[in-house]
Amino acid sequence: MQRNKFRIILDTNVLYSGLYSSKGASFKILEAIEEGKVQMVLSTTLIFEYEDIFKRNQAQLGLSTREIEKILNYFCMQSEHQKIYFLWRPCLYDAKDDLLLELAVASGSKFIVTHNTRHFKNIERFNVTAITPKKLWEDLL
């Protein structure tokens, strides 16, 4: 992995949006991952969350179970994997958001890319910023 790449934590809502529609910033972020412009960081817990959401919504996504598994395998291969050795929950209102913050802190990632930036109040104290896909695309890529 090149160290000059942006290392990002991708909230499930951004990955879902990018798979649902090829229009918009979420899809552009997925293209940036494929092109090697950003480095996605995953934990085991986050990949299981992706799987759960995609399989529950596979009809809306228009994907078969096999296609979902291929997509998840692809992201596993393209991502940096990070173990999390500490838990200091609850810190945020939603425990699923806490897992993203913990992953960002453990991996040294500066950005959580999400459509729900309001869910990540006061995370700057951890040297992490919640940023929308559009903002990431416009300002950093």
Describe the structure in brief.
This protein is α/β, with parallel strands linked by helices and 141 residues long. It has helices at residues 12-20, 25-34, 44-56, 58-61, 65-78, 95-107, 133-139, and strands at 6-10, 38-42, 80-81, 111-113, 129-131. The longest helix is centred in the middle third of the chain and has 14 residues, at 65-78.
Report on this model:
With 141 residues, the protein is an alpha/beta fold. It has helices spanning 12-20, 25-34, 44-56, 58-61, 65-78, 95-107, 133-139; strands spanning 6-10, 38-42, 80-81, 111-113, 129-131. The chain has a single domain, classed as 5'-nuclease (Rossmann fold, 3-Layer(aba) Sandwich), CATH 3.40.50.1010. 50% of the residues lie in helices and 13% in strands. A 5-stranded parallel β-sheet has the order 3-2-1-4-5, sandwiched between helices. α1 crosses α2, α2 (25-34) crosses α7 and α3 (44-56) packs antiparallel against α5. The protein is globular and about 40 Å long. 30% of the residues are buried.
